[in-house]
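Hi everyone,

Forwarding the result from last night's run.
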Amino acid sequence: MFVVTGASKGLGKAICTRLIENNVQVLGLARDTSNLSFESINCDVSSADEVRSVAKLIRKQKYNVEAVINAAGIASMNLALTTPSAVAEKIVQTNLLGTIYCCQHFAPFLIRNKKGTIINFSTIAVSLGLKGESIYAASKAGVEGFSRAFAREMSDFNISVNCIAPGPIKTDLIRGVSEKKISKVISNQIFQKQFMPDDICDLVEMLVGDSAQTLSGQVFHVGGV
């Protein structure tokens, strides 16, 4: 079984759909799973208690967890000086602490198997230092730093930990962002095009495959920077 967070929409849902098409058993986690047709549980990853409860359920059901994909994330495209503290806290709580909580509570299932894959999600905003995305970028920079260190902690158990850091992908996350801003970001990529969720799914497929098990502690920029 693959545990996928952020499963109700965007990249998370696209990843779940691709995995299911490949006959992989998926457990999707999201704050609202009412629209999902595959196995799923309501879970706000920003709550350590909710993540812990899901881990207890997985243990009770004796699911064999082979991979954890932390795709849940939120963004608020505002200047740091005009971002309300409650919004800043929610961004960091969801993106950074949510990723950490899921790794803390789900990695033990992989450790028990002495193998597995963890994929966390960052953003091109970290490497480019995008204006208006400083708090979002800070939360994801934390994810990258955590993932690099956590990869070393997991290496003794034959578990890989990597980050995917996409540029603008056509999902709800960038709805409302102007075409001018998106074009400017894309112009800084090595491959200057806007990628689709399927492109991310291709990379996820590669990273969970046997041929990629020697890759760990890496940040993969879709589009290149």
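Residues 122 and 216 are 15 Å apart (CA to CA).

Cheers,
N.
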